[in-house]
């Protein structure tokens, strides 16, 4: 992709008065939360299309309504509800807002995060079906990337903006499906400053708004290695800040399951969420050639499944390895997630897992997943 910042055609830029929009920010140091899609749930009486309670469904415009704020809190003072949107940003939706209680308290749990995403999907769908809405824009970028500043300078009353990190295609997938189902065009605006700039901005924030540096670095890596693309089903992608694809490299070394082993694993641990993985155990992220050289690439190895864990956001199994080094604190295979990336399994397992009374043995091949999407079982890492 070129360095001029454009990926596909440019997104129209509409100037609006600059405003100061206070934003609620999660203080939970975990990967950007997203949730399971409840497939084929087309709504019942008193429940939104994607499972949100009636209090989450608010008008996208109007003097008393604010998208993304529980209706019970709309009339409360901004200092109580913890969130205020000026008139020029009432068309902005963010899952984070739904984590606030009516009295202004912020609470993050996997179950609340799942419901927050369901509620934000409902609000997004509701807003896009408004006849005044002309299109949708997904604001993509890590904390400190400048999403709020860009939005303040480019807000357009005919556009509904979804403001979240959205660092992987999995996290953007359902939003794009919702927009396409309404017939409204959807664009991506990717704010992509240097990692150093984002880290400096993050460090200058008040302590309760800062995100851990290692989390920012991980989100940045995810975006650079799998950037937003027109192939996701959007009309336009605009990269603000420019993008230079990294040179070909090993994304991770792993033990990869073949179709037979994957079927065996999923038969024992059926997927609980929409996005099903169950295809590898990560040994090391971004291994160097010297690290890869120590592996017996192509070798078939045995893995013993000894534990499991799941919550409202994801599902994984714990693996016992023999004769292989793994940099993960708990060796595991991600089974499924909602709209979380498969890396959520690491966070899930830090909160504990259930040991199995009977283990399951499966096999896999040692290999390397490359930045060009190829899986290699030999020592050739480039070309």
- Largest sheet features: 8 strands, antiparallel
Uncertain stretches: 1-89
What is the total number of structural domains?
Answer: 2
The secondary structure category is: alpha/beta
Number of helices: 9
* Broad shape: globular
Estimate the helix proportion, in percent: 10-25%
Mean model confidence by pLDDT: 77
Distance between the termini: 19 Å
Number of DSSP-assigned strands: 14
Which strand-content bin applies to the residues? 15-25%
Radius of gyration, Cα only, in angstroms?
A: 22 Å
Q: H/E element string? A: EHEHEHEHEHHEEHEEHEEEHEE
Task: Explain what the structure shows.
The chain is an alpha/beta fold and 383 residues long. The protein folds into two domains: 6-240, no CATH class; 250-376, 2',3'-cyclic nucleotide 3'-phosphodiesterase fold. Helices cover 23% and strands 22% of the residues. It is built from nine helices and 14 strands. The protein has helices spanning 78-81, 110-128, 147-154, 169-182, 195-203, 213-225, 259-268, 289-293, 344-350, and strands spanning 6-7, 92-93, 135-140, 159-163, 186-191, 236-240, 250-256, 275-276, 280-285, 300-310, 314-320, 332-337, 354-370, 375-376. The strands form two sheets. Strands 7, 8, 9, 10, 11, 12, 13 and 14 form an eight-stranded antiparallel sheet that branches. A six-stranded mixed sheet has the order 1-6-5-3-4-2, sandwiched between helices. A hairpin with a 3-residue loop joins strand 10 and strand 11. Helix 2 (110-128) runs parallel beside helix 4 (169-182) and helix 5 runs antiparallel to helix 6. The longest helix has 19 residues, at 110-128. The chain is globular. The two termini are 19 Å apart. Residues 1-89 have low confidence and may be disordered.
């Amino acid at each position: 992709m070129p360095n001029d910042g454009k990926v596909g055609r440019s997104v129209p830029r509409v100037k609006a008065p600059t405003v100061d929009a206070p934003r609620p920010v999660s203080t939970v140091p975990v990967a950007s939360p997203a949730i399971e899609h409840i497939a084929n749930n087309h709504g019942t009486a008193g429940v939104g299309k994607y499972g949100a309670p009636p209090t989450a469904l608010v008008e996208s415009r109007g003097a008393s309504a604010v998208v993304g704020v529980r209706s019970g809190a709309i009339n409360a003072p901004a200092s109580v509800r913890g969130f205020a949107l000026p008139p020029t940003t009432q068309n902005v939706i963010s899952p984070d807002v739904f984590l606030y209680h009516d009295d202004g308290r912020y609470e993050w749990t996997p179950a609340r995060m799942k419901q927050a995403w369901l509620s934000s999907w409902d609000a997004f769908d509701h807003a896009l079906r408004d006849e005044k809405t002309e299109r949708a824009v997904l604001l993509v970028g890590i904390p400190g990337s400048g999403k709020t500043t860009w939005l303040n300078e480019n807000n357009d009353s005919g556009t509904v903006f979804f403001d979240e990190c959205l660092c992987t295609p999995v996290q953007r997938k359902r939003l794009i499906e919702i927009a396409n189902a309404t017939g409204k065009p959807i664009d991506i605006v990717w704010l992509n400053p240097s990692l150093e700039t984002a880290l400096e901005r993050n460090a200058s924030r008040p302590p309760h708004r800062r995100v851990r540096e290692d989390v920012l670095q991980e989100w940045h890596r995810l975006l650079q290695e799998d950037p937003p693309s027109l192939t996701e089903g959007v009309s336009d992608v605009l990269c603000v800040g420019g993008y230079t694809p990294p040179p070909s490299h090993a994304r991770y070394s792993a033990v990869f399951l073949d179709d037979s082993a994957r079927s065996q694993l999923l038969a024992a641990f059926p997927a609980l969420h929409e996005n099903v993985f169950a295809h590898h155990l990560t040994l090391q992220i971004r291994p160097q050639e010297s690290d890869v050289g120590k592996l017996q690439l192509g070798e078939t190895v045995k893995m013993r499944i000894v534990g499991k864990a799941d919550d409202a956001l994801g599902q994984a199994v714990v693996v016992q390895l023999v004769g292989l080094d793994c940099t993960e604190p708990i060796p595991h295979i991600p089974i499924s997630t909602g709209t979380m990336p498969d890396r959520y399994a690491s966070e899930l397992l830090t909160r504990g897992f259930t040991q199995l009374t009977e283990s399951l043995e499966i096999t896999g091949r040692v290999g390397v997943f490359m930045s060009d999407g190829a899986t290699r079982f030999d020592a050739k890492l480039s070309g």
